Amino acid sequence: MTDTWLIVGLGNPGPQYQGNRHNVGQMVLDELAGRMGSGFKTHKARAQVVEGRLGIGGPRVVLAKPITYMNVSGGPVSALANFYGIAADHVVAVHDEIDIPFNTIKLKIGGGEGGHNGLRDISKALATKDYLRVRVGVGRPPGRMDTADFVLRDFASAERKELPFLLDDAADAVEALLRDGLTAAQQKYHPAKAGQ
C-alpha cells in the first residue's frame, strides 16, 4: 500500500446541482485543486481526479469527485482506492452534514452515516466504516421541510456570503488532517464545549 491519500468530495453531477448544499464536498475539492494549481481530469473509475502534492513537500494526494450520483459514490471510491493502492484508513470523504450548524467543520473516523446515502454506499463498497470524514455543516432544514429537499437546494443568500470562508476552512481542515493527524486536527476545528 502507498502513502497516498484519496480525498473524495461528495456531490451530484451536472450544473443543476453545483450550488446545492449536498455538493459542498465537491466545492471543497475545487478549493484544494485551486491550491494545487491543477484542474480535474476524467478517470476511468467514473470520477474526475487531480493527482499531486498538497502544499510544498506535503502529502501525495488524489482528489476525486465521483461523476455518479451521490447515493452510488461507493463504486468510484472503491475503484480509485484499488487503482492507486490506497487503504481505507487513507480515504477521506468530504461531505455535507445536516447534524452540525452551517459554518462548522468536524472531523472523525468511522461511526455511523447519519442517514447520508453517499457515506452509506462508500462504507458498503469499501467493506468498512473506518475511513476519515470531513463533515461540513450545512444546518438543519427549516420547519418541516424534507431533508432531501433541503440538501438539494442552493445555499441561501446570507449563507452564500459566508460560503467562501467555510470552503477555505474546510480545505484547511483537510490539510491539517493529513499533516497533523486526526486528534490534532479535531482539537483545532472542534469548538471546546462542556461535555464534548
Helices and strands, with pairings:
Elements: E1 5-9, H1 24-36, E2 41-43, E3 47-53, E4 60-66, H2 74-84, E5 91-97, E6 105-109, H3 117-126, E7 132-137, H4 147-151, H5 157-180, H6 182-189
Helix pairs in contact: 1-5, 2-3, 5-6
Please state the CA-atom Rg, rounded to the nearest Å.
15 Å
Average pLDDT, all residues: 94
Q: Quote the distance from N terminus to C terminus.
A: 35 Å
**Proportion of residues in helical segments:** 25-40%
Order of helices and strands: EHEEEHEEHEHHH
Number of helices: 6
Shape: globular
- The percent range for strand residues is 15-25%
Q: Which structural class matches the secondary elements?
A: alpha/beta
Q: How many strands in all?
A: 7
Examine the secondary-structure arrangement and name the CATH architecture.
3-Layer(aba) Sandwich
What would CATH call the homologous superfamily? Peptidyl-tRNA hydrolase
CATH topology: Rossmann fold
Biggest pleated-sheet summary: 7 strands, mixed
Strand order of the largest sheet: 2-3-4-1-5-7-6
Regions with little confidence, pLDDT below 50 for 5+ residues: none
Count of domains: 1
Question: Which CATH first-tier class would you pick?
Answer: Alpha Beta
Describe the structure.
The protein is an alpha/beta fold and 196 residues long. It has a single domain, classed as Rossmann fold (3-Layer(aba) Sandwich), CATH 3.40.50. 36% of the residues lie in helices and 20% in strands. The chain has six helices and seven strands; from the N terminus they run βαβββαββαβααα. Strands 2-3-4-1-5-7-6 form a seven-stranded mixed sheet, with helices on both faces. A hairpin with a 3-residue loop joins strand 2 and strand 3. Helix 1 packs across helix 5, helix 2 packs across helix 3 and helix 5 packs antiparallel against helix 6. It starts with a strand and ends in a 7-residue tail after the last helix. The mean pLDDT is 94.
